[in-house]
Amino acid sequence: MSHLDNDLSLLGDAARGYLGRTHGLHIGGEDVATRHSYALIDPASGQEFARASEAGEDEVDRSVAAARNALEGEWKALRPHERERRLLKLADLLEAHEREISEVETLCSGRLLANTAGVDVQYSAHALRYMAGWATKLEGQTMRLSVPYVPEGDLRGFTFREPVGVVGAIVPWNVALGIAVWKIAPALSAGCTIVLKPAPQTPLSVLRFARLALEAGIPEGVINIVTGSGSAVGEMLVNHRDIAMISFTGSTSVGRAIAVQAAGQFKKYSLELGGKSPVILMEDADIDASAHAAAWAIFGNHGQNCCAGSRLYVHRSIHDAVIERVAQIANEIELSAPLRPGAAMGPVISRAHRERVSDYIEAGVAQGAKLVAGGRNPEHDGAYMRPTVLAGAESEMTPVQDEIFGPVLMAAAFDTEDEVLSLANDSRFGLGASVFTNDAERIHRMVERLEAGSVWINIHNALDVALPFGGWKESGVGNDLGEASVLAHTRLKASVHYHR
Ligand code: NAD
């Protein structure tokens, strides 16, 4: 057995017991079988390891009806601190099932166990606890009014924040459960109910999570999961008349289509989309530390992060030393099956995705960039690809403008602060950006001038549950995380009380 072969004997009993079957939908607390199913493929082997269900229109209708019933029934009747208590319990249960859930997610996505345990389980538990606290802190305003055409009497005004209704959430495969929890936790905290569609490749961890929610005392119908294809099941959700808000994370092209559909139906929507985030190393950056940070900004999660640092701009005075170091890190990364303890990098999500990423590398070379690391793929049935660095990147190159969503870094040198700001902002995306420098005045200037929803200083891709995370430009509309994401799941009601 080669170190690239996923060794399924490493799976614990819980994951093994859960995996090998056709998984139904989760509607109104029940496991619902459908007529059609599809194969789930292990990206590390190209082999089928379980099947998932393809929802049809009937099942989407049933799931929205279950969410509506829960919204008007048991969930609405609970006091806010009861919602809080159950979300806290769910966080504990999730942690207690860390091994099972992280193994299941690793098998579906090819992501490293350390990553699925750290992000999909531990970070999600943290997010659930943070969001749980908001359930008891949603407030309105109180004021005395002066309606000019009601000259006599006493007028008081109040605002209430009410749950927006049934939320339709659609999420990608790159951090499947983690991003699902970014949708579910604020929705439930605000008193909404939800129908969530995971990406077709990664439905199992979120289905398991939905069952844990029942154990935590979250009533049937509050969380519903419908699995299947985006063009069919996703569109049905977006267009369903009883869905009040669409919360989407995925590509810009799908997000654009959803925005048009949702706007036509006057639904609320929040879109967390693609990125092409720059990492900027100024002349005073520590070469070793910042090269290490830049390498893992793109190679972490095999480059499949929305805010991966996929463009690297290095001051000319340190450029050659940094690129040499980043290339060395790339060359030293050992590819390995993701279930293996201590693995540093596993496969990308599928062989089809690997082909797409490889085409971008070829395009970069054809357009004049210089390959300084990677570019070759191992002979294996798994979707493994070597971390790749291309230097001499120019703004017009396709792989500099497009989101690649793989372990491919486009690097370039610059001479001045103005020049690098204009290079960094020369993108249709605006999700994240990072600057490595200790010059305080420069930090203030650059934070202000970078066109991105998140700007990090001396670190890249640091997301905290208390801070809003969202994109500018074609990277999206609205925010996940933080107070902003809870408030987005509410609608304001104004009330006037009149006493003669
Ligand atoms: P994708 O857009 O192809 O799919 C995302 C989800 O939308 C999936 O569940 C898919 O089945 C569904 N979908 C596809 N077509 C649909 C349609 N017509 N109507 C409704 N739903 C549809 O994206 P992906 O390949 O799964 O994920 C990668 C993308 O996600 C990248 O662009 C990445 O940057 C983005 N992403 C963004 C963030 C963020 O927070 N900004 C986070 C993670 C990933």
Summarize the structure.
Helices cover about 40% and strands about 20% of the residues.
Give a verbal description of the structure.
This protein has 500 residues and is an alpha/beta fold. Helix content is 40%, strand content 22%. It has 17 helices and 23 strands. The strands form 6 sheets. The protein has a 7-stranded mixed beta sheet with strand order 15-16-17-14-13-19-20, sandwiched between helices. Strand 19, helix 16 and strand 20 form a beta-alpha-beta unit. It starts with 12 loop residues before the first helix and ends with a strand. Nicotinamide-adenine-dinucleotide binds next to helix 9 and helix 10.
Question: What is the element layout, followed by pairings?
Answer:
Layout: H1 13-19, E1 22-23, E2 25-27, E3 30-32, E4 36-42, E5 47-54, H2 57-72, H3 74-77, H4 80-96, H5 98-109, H6 113-134, E6 142-144, E7 154-163, E8 166-170, H7 176-189, E9 193-197, H8 204-215, E10 223-225, H9 230-239, E11 245-249, H10 252-264, E12 268-272, E13 278-281, H11 287-299, E14 311-315, H12 316-332, H13 351-366, E15 370-373, E16 388-391, H14 398-401, E17 408-414, H15 417-425, E18 429-430, E19 432-436, H16 440-449, E20 454-457, E21 472-473, E22 476-477, H17 482-487, E23 490-499
Parallel strand pairs: 1-5, 8-9, 8-11, 9-10, 11-12, 13-14, 13-19, 14-17, 16-17, 19-20
Antiparallel strand pairs: 2-3, 4-5, 6-7, 7-23, 12-22, 15-16, 18-21
Helix pairs in contact: 1-5, 4-6, 4-8, 5-6, 5-8, 6-7, 11-12
Bound molecules: nicotinamide-adenine-dinucleotide.
**Number of beta strands:** 23
What radius of gyration results from the CA coordinates?
24 Å
User: Cofactors and ligands present?
Assistant: nicotinamide-adenine-dinucleotide
CA-to-CA gap between the ends?
Answer: 85 Å
- Helix proportion range: 40-55%
Shape descriptor reads globular
Q: Compute the number of helices.
A: 17
Q: Helices and strands: which structural class?
A: alpha/beta
Mean pLDDT: 97
Strand portion: 15-25%
Residue ranges: pLDDT <50 for 5 or more in a row? none
Largest sheet: 7 strands, mixed
> In which order are the strands of the major sheet placed?
15-16-17-14-13-19-20
